[in-house]
Amino acid sequence: MKKQIFLLFLFMTYMTFLSHAQLPKLKIGGKKDSTEVVSEPKAPKVKSAGGSNLMGKILTKTAMLAGSIGGSAFGMVSSTDNLEEVVMTGGVWHNLRNKSVGTVDMTFFGDWSSGGNMTMLSFTQKSRTGWTKIEGDITVNGKIIEGDNFGIYSSFEPANLSAPKEVAIKTSSGQEASFTIPAASQTFELLSINGQNENPSVDFSQDVTLELSLGENFDKNIPMFVQMTARVLGISTFYPVGYFEPSTTLVIPAAAFRNIGIDPTNDKLANYSSIYLEIARAEILKPTDLVGEISIPQLVVNYADGRSLNIVKGPEMNNGIKYKGTEKFQNGGMDYDFLKPNAFYSRPISQIKKAGVLSLSITGTTYVQGKTTSSSSSFSAGGTTYTSTTTTTTSASFPQIADELWEDVLESFYNDFTKIIESEYNTTFVPIDMITDSDAYQNLIPYSSDDENTTTEFQYSYKNTVALQKVLPFVPLTGGPNDVMKETGVNALFKIMLELKIAFDRGNPVMIPTLNVELLGVSNGDPNDVLASPTKYFQGEIVGDGVRYPAANLSKEDLDKVIRKSNLLDLFQRSIQELKTKELANPDYQTVWDNSFNR
Fold first, then answer.
1. 294 with 352, same domain?
2. Looking at per-residue confidence, does 223 or 9 come out higher?
3. Ramachandran angles phi, psi of 119, nearest 5°
4. Do 445 and 536 share a domain, yes or no?
5. pLDDT at residue 52 tops 60
6. Using 50, 70 and 90 to split pLDDT, how confident is the model at 28?
7. Count of the separate structural domains present in the chain
8. Together in a domain, 377 and 505
9. Which string of DSSP letters, residue by residue, matches 226-276?
């Protein structure tokens, strides 16, 4: 078991390095007030190819082994013979890059076919986060395909652009489903990069020009997706550069290469000395000839072309704008930590036209047990020694408060918060009911946390909003916040969480007020693709010093003293003003989105 845990740890570490869609978690700082635009220097060149590649191979093989035992062992993967329990995604990827590119997916998919095509199907659980293996047989064009231990099934074939894929599933319980994946129609050819055909030279501090030949059936509503490789600990994988309007001449601004979709932690470890640039067009389709009960939100038919580059100068990354520090008020200090991600994941504030509130809630603890201490004393009587032990446990409780009072607290907070946003961003808010009554929002409710007011915890949401899980089980099943924006006409959604937590300060119980805010934007990518990259204008956290509170009979005035709303909102407003100032000083945000497909 220890070996399995160790291997799974290595696997998860490896997956963390590959991840480019996750934004960094905020940490509370207590340092001197500071504002910075983070820009990391280009990683040094690898001294020799062998060492770096060897490390990549070791980690890749370890990850494969860990995946073969770790998923099921830790509940990440289940199996089923009931197709109604799963959601399936997948598609066909045409004109696969040459094996010599050496990206990590080629190792996982051992039958990689250079220039050929891959059919890939993946099954996830409807009710919770995790993958699912199908108990039974899956065939593509009559050939049984095998799945890996994460419920991912793949099949490789030589190039054939005209033939559709016929998929059939039959479970061990006798359930059957079948469908067709259409043939590719959005083909193209990459003719040159910066006027050069083979091994083109690229200076990433300059714009890069691509010359393309588009197929006769090209759809102007399908973007050109550009991505590039980078090596992290010797593992080569793709990171997104951006989505662009289809054209025979495509100019990618240098700013896009400074803002690729890579986590800042990975960028510090990344090597950009050997890069493969790939352009792709992905048709987002529904299956045809569908028979049987199975949920398939979308299929992808992808065509790609690319080149290995001769790097003259590598990219110097913009890792976003950070603003953090500590502010001293008369009634106590507050730590703040705000982040605007880089331009791939964060739209410019100027794009905000209409805002809404996705969730607003207050949560916290009402009871906590502190230290337990013991003291002993002994005495003798009649030749016998007796010992008396006294145990003392420190605890604190927060009186239960009527829902009506929480409603008043959140109503006051909502009114003051929205006034700040309307003033700072020159925008308006749609009524909360417009958000919560939407069909897309109703799809999210099953994945929310219920309100509670117990002896240990409380959670209360404003009006009809719900506190959403941090990770939805599967976005294509729910639609996610992006669908809420599409349906309601807003292009910015706030997630707001107030938290009160009991702690002890020198033996005295205190309440620590915390404010977490995220402002979500419309996804980056094809608007028809439910897996397009999520964006957020910013995220921030403010944590106040602990506040003493009465042991019983808390009034609204007492709650105001604990929550410190005026301090929280004052510091929040100054923080977003600072982010806005720093964003305006960094032209990358406007440049990237002015040239983006879904600007």
1. no
2. 223
3. -100, 125
4. yes
5. no
6. very low
7. 2
8. yes
9. EEEEEEETTEEEEEEEEEE---SEEEEPHHHHHT-S--HHHHHHEE-SS-E
Q: For the chain, state the CA radius of gyration.
A: 27
| Nearest by Cα to 510 from 377, 368, 406 | 368
Q: Report whether 534 contacts 549 (CB < 8 A).
A: no
Q: How far is CA 166 from the centre of its chain?
A: 33
180 and 98 fall within a common domain = yes
Domain ranges, residue 281:
46-315
Q: What is the pTM of this model?
A: 0.82
Map tokens 């001197």 to a residue. 32
Q: How confident is the model at residue 356 (pLDDT cuts 50, 70, 90)?
A: very high
Return d(Cα 599, Cα 583) in angstroms, integer.
17
Q: Which residues contact 242 (CB under 8 A, 6 or more apart)?
A: 225, 226, 252, 256, 344, 524, 592, 595, 596, 597
Assign 595 a pLDDT band (cuts: 50, 70, 90): very high
Is residue 40 situated within a structural domain?
no
Q: Residue 508, Cβ neighbours under 10 Å: how many?
A: 11
Pairwise CA distance, residues 71 & 591, whole Å: 42
Alpha helix segments (H runs only) across 42-181: 49-73, 104-108
Residue 115's contacts (CB-CB under 8 Å, 6 or more residues apart) are: 95, 96, 98, 158, 159
Given 300, 315, 330, the domain boundary residue is 315
- Taking the alpha carbons of 417, 422, 425, 430 in that order, is the dihedral positive or negative? positive
pLDDT above 90: residue 513: yes
